[in-house]
Amino acid sequence: MSLSTALASSKNDGVLILLDIDFNSQLSLQPSSQQQFCTTPWCTWGFTLHTIKLPLTVDGSPLQVRELEVVSMSDKKAVKNVDPQSWLAKQDLSNLDKAQLTALTEEVISRQATINIGTIGHVAHGKSTLVKAISGVHTVKFKNELERNITIKLGYANAKIYRCSNPQCPRPGCYRSAGSSNPDRFPCEREDCGGEFVCVRHISFVDCPGHDILMATMLNGAAIMDAALLIVAGNEPCPQPQTLEHLAAVEIMQLKNLLIIQNKVTWLMNRKLKISRNKLELKYNIDVICEYICKKVPVPIRDFSSDPRLIVVRSFDVNKPGSEVEDLKGGVAGGSILKGILHVGQKIEVRPGVVTKTADGSIQCRPIVSQIVSLLAEQNQLQYAVPGGLIGVGTKIDPALCRGDRLVGHVLGAVGTLPDIFIEIEVAYYLLRRLVGVRMEGGKKAARVSKLLKGEVLNVNIGSLSTGGRVIAVKKTPQPRSLLRIPFALKSPRR
Question: Which residues form the Tr-type G domain (predicted)?
Answer without folding.
Answer: 112-368
